[in-house]
Automatic annotation (TrEMBL):
It comes from the Eukaryota. Its main location: membrane. GO terms for molecular function: organophosphate ester transmembrane transporter activity; phosphoglycerate transmembrane transporter activity. This is Sugar phosphate transporter domain-containing protein. It comes from Carya illinoinensis.
């Protein structure tokens, strides 16, 4: 009896299922066809795919195209090399930008300290001097926003609320440092201010409960020891100047802590952030400056200074105020481009440049033991920056 048989053959190639249904009647399989499939007559099949076809290699399908594959790989390598080259160029441009920021930051800071000391030697009113430097920077930024030279920040009440404790700490630190410089040499003030990392670790450890690695604590030994050695051997030591620098260190540590806690998620650039900080600090400082020194003392001192120095003093005052804002603004702008560790190292090297330049310009007498103490303190600050990494 001859009958038509519909057979279904299922084959799996790399996980994909093909159902091959024979349209014409199938002849009985011959024994030879099992061993010699090529001797069978060609038959037409209808192909239906029940699952996606996944091909793991070209060889499984007996398709060999070595030239095409090589060409594809070559193009792929060429395409992938372009982003790498662009990334390398952007990285090099970023390094150059950071280098310009650092050089500008240090130069402006050196110039500010020179004119600040000249002003304080001729006009010993640190509260007014601090107020004028904040007022000058605030006025510069208001003009920049009004003329659209710089884009004004988008702020709200919550922003100013979180900025207020930062501004209080900034105001105290700024005035304390200015009072210190009015009483002692610039080099001595900055030697004492190099101990700021020690204050940062102590405040974070005992008030915030943070713990640090052992190398961080060990780095505090040369910082504290070097500052103590420099203070003991300072020829023109003054307790008010020494305490002013110490208070400035403590205030700036709290400024950094408040800034980290309060400014998370705030989309304000470094330049505008410092501008807002200057405005708020100016409002806080002005009534205290009037209460401590007062207009009568300022007018009497101004007349005496102008009679001794002349109009040149006006340039000193203007330069001191302008360069104070510029160097702080550049330092905050650099924070947008670099890590806190790099900023800390740059701040350490900034103090070295200020100490050396002030000793040269003002002919500050320095004993070898005093210079050794300063070097030890700065070395400890550098080790602190490395251990924090």
């Amino acid at each position: 009896m001859i009958c038509s048989v519909r057979q279904s053959v299922t084959k799996t190639i790399n996980g994909s299922d093909f159902f091959l249904r024979e349209r014409s009647p199938v002849q009985p399989l011959q024994r030879s066809s099992l061993f010699f499939p090529a001797l069978q007559k060609p038959q037409r099949f209808a192909v239906s795919v029940s699952k996606p076809l996944h091909v793991s290699s070209v060889e499984n399908l007996s398709l060999k195209a070595p030239r095409d594959s090589v060409i594809c790989e070559a193009y792929e390598a060429a395409d992938s090399s372009r982003p790498v080259q662009q990334e390398a160029k952007s990285e090099a441009a970023k390094k150059v930008k950071i280098g310009v920021y650092f050089a500008t930051w240090w130069a402006l800071n050196v110039v500010f300290n020179i004119y600040n000391k000249k002003v304080l030697n001729a006009y010993p009113y640190p509260w007014l001097t601090s107020t004028l430097s904040l007022a000058c920077g605030s006025l510069m930024m208001l003009i920049s926003w009004a003329t659209r030279i710089a884009e004004a920040p988008k702020t709200d009440f919550e922003f100013w609320k979180t900025l207020f404790p930062v501004a209080v700490a900034h105001t105290i630190g700024h005035v304390a440092a200015t009072v210190s410089m009015s009483k002692v040499a610039v080099s001595f003030t900055h030697i004492i201010k190099s101990s700021e990392p020690a204050f940062s670790v102590l405040v974070s450890r005992f008030l915030l409960g943070e713990s640090f690695p052992v190398p961080v604590y060990l780095s505090l030994i040369p910082i504290i020891g070097g500052c103590a050695l420099a203070a003991v051997t300072e020829l023109n030591f003054n307790m008010i100047g020494f305490m002013g620098a110490m208070i400035s260190n403590l205030a700036f540590v709290f400024r950094n802590i408040f800034s980290k806690k309060g400014m998370k998620g705030k989309s304000v650039s470094g330049m505008n952030y410092y501008a807002c900080l200057s405005l708020l600090s100016l409002l806080i400082l002005t009534p205290f400056a009037i209460a401590v020194e007062g207009p009568q003392m300022w007018v009497a001192g101004w007349q005496t200074t102008m009679s001794q120095i002349g109009r040149q003093f006006i340039w000193w005052m203007a330069a001191q105020s302008v360069f104070y804002h510029l160097y702080n603004q550049v330092s905050y702008m650099s924070l947008d481009e670099i890590s806190p560790l790099t900023f800390s190292i740059g701040n350490t090297m900034k103090r070295v440049s200020v100490i050396v330049s002030s000793i040269i310009i003002f002919h500050t007498p320095v004993q070898p033991i005093n210079a050794l103490g300063a070097a030890i303190a700065i070395l400890g600050t550098f080790l602190y920056s490395q251990s924090k990494q």
